[in-house]
Amino acid sequence: MSFITRGFSGRSHDRDPRLPPGQTEVSDWPVLSAGPTPRVDTEEWEFSIRTENGAHTWTWDQFMALKIDDVSTDIHCVTHWSKLGTSWRGVSIDTLFEGIETSHDFVMAHSYGGYTTNVPLDELLNGQAWIAFEFDGEPLEAEHGGPARLIVPHLYFWKSAKWVRGLVTMPNDDPGFWEQSGYHIHGDPWKEERYW
Amino acid sequence: MSHLDGNALAGVLSEVFTFDPTLARARCANCYSVDVLARAMVYVDGSAFVVRCASCDAVLATVMDGDGRRWVSLKGVSAIEIPR
Amino acid sequence: MSGPADTAWRVGSVSRISKETPSAARIVLDVDGWPGNDAGQHLDIRLTAPDGYTATRSYSIASAGPGMVVDLAVDKLPDGEVSPFLVDDVMAGDKLEVHGPLGGWFVWRPDAASSPVQLIGGGSGVVPLIAMLRSHHDTADATPFRLLYSLRTPEDTFFPEVLKDADVDYVYTRRAPDGWPTPAGRLTKDVLAASVFAAAEKPRVFLCGSTGFVETVAAWLVELGHDPRMIRTERFGGT
After folding, report:
1. Which residues form the Oxidoreductase molybdopterin-binding domain (chain A) (predicted)?
2. Does C88 lie at the interface with A, CB-CB under 8 angstroms?
3. Which of A127, A196, C21, C148 has the highest CB neighbour number within 10 Å of its CB?
4. B69 to chain C, minimum CA–CA distance in Å?
């Protein structure tokens, strides 16, 4: 690129060791919109896990009766912003998978509104991922994925599916919505796995 | 959520097609309606455009920029009529 | 002017930049090799930082016709990345990379067609409509033209020198001029019905503004009997 626009620097590029390469810290929370925001009432909300052995489904009330974790973590969006020290409350995927057997190694997360994203099962377990319904002490707003979203903070944030309604295990690492359309199949921000 | 019109795709897609893509008529693979791309709904998702059918909301196409590259998917379009 | 899309980025030189409204700037570009443009088309502007970071946004063109001079009016969005740079930092003599003209859908060409043309603009959404008014005026086209312009205050008027020669209905949403017959307030369906060509006259409608404005007005127009196929919209959201 030989052309440089005089005086243009883009957003500031302060470095913090918690920032993966190519990321910039933001204090606000940019809303990205791949479509209309689904409005799902907790009365109608359901969450399910489906494996080759059958399905397990929770209503909102059943979900709230599970063990709830407080999570403090950094989040990294593929569009180069990171938000440090965010706090969430939600149910660990470990808790949800208690008593569930599967020989599958991969998971497709499905959302209200049709969004999908793929994650290896062993990256959802061992305290690495949650179904979160509170952010900063408040119920998660619909525009940020409420009533509940998946959070997988060690991967780029497109993997943290908003409006999540279920996880389906699968034998192969099939690509989800953005992974089919250009984003990296895995999405590790420390390796800058942004695109194919 | 707010969205734009298919008109907004003229810039990014003119580097892909040799005609004005916003004037091309496309058939939605979900509801089978046919309309010019200019009438589709375009959501801006970071550095990506998600193009949805104005009749049924299904995803027609995505256009994504990153790393000096561009990805175009027409996964929800069954066919496109090229103006000639 | 509407042949195969041109993929080349060109360098435009800022020949003049001036304050258009309290929040917007008018930018006049000389673009070497610009092929001219139809009224209503837009262009992309690409800014490049020394580290190679780029940001690209679309802006409607306020001018039309042949020639290599392109008029823009850019409204500053407080949270934006590109518009504050264009409004506050750009100076005469600066070079900007541009790609265009773009878009063959939201355009009006002089044609003296029998059906009238209704323009409806919200805020800076008036910019492509300004190009249509100019083209209509400059070509002495006989098509009946009318503009409904929703804006916050009198100081927010874009291109007043173009509007003074046009048939314009103003709706002031925050503060009206002294002595204005109606108090400031949002556009309503009744005011819309009273200010545009009736559906029976089968006007072609060009509607441009924020997403919310366009959605609301387009729905009202259809309720008032306008044929959706006669309504062309351009929503803007660029920052």
Report:
1. 35-178
2. no
3. C148
4. 13
Residue C184 lies in a domain: yes
Q: Is residue C107 part of a domain?
A: no
Measured between beta carbons, the chain C residues lying within 8 angstroms of A21 are none
* pLDDT per residue as tens digits for the range C156-185: 999 999 999 999 999 999 999 999 999 999
Q: What is the ipTM of this complex?
A: 0.83
Structure pTM? Answer: 0.82
A:B CB pairs within 8 Å: 59
Question: Which residues between 25 and 84 in chain B have a beta carbon less than 8 angstroms from any beta carbon of chain A?
Answer: 43-48, 50, 52, 57-59, 62, 64, 66-67, 69, 71, 73, 75
Q: Is the pLDDT of residue B71 over 50?
A: yes
DSSP C68-110: SEEEEEEEPPTT-SSHHIIIII--TT-EEEEEEEE-SSS-B--
pLDDT digits (tens, 9 = 90+) for A48-78: 999 999 999 999 999 999 999 999 999 999 9
Q: Which residues on C lie below 8 Å from A10 (Cβ)?
A: 47, 49, 51, 53, 55, 81
Q: Residue C213: give its domain's CATH number.
A: 3.40.50.80
Contacts of residue A77 in chain B, CB cutoff 8 Å? 46
Nearest to C48 among A5, A13, A28 (CB): A5
CATH code of the domain containing C72? 2.40.30.10
Residues of A near B (CB-CB distance < 8 A)?
Answer: 30-37, 77-79, 114, 143, 177-178, 180-183, 194-196
CB atoms inside a 10 Å sphere around CB C125: 27
Q: How many domains does chain C have?
A: 2
Task: Spell out the domains of chain A, with CATH numbers in brackets.
Answer: 43-191 (3.90.420.10)
Q: Which residue has the higher pLDDT, C211 or A190?
A: A190
Tens of pLDDT, residue by residue over A125-160, are 999 999 999 999 999 999 899 999 999 999 999 999
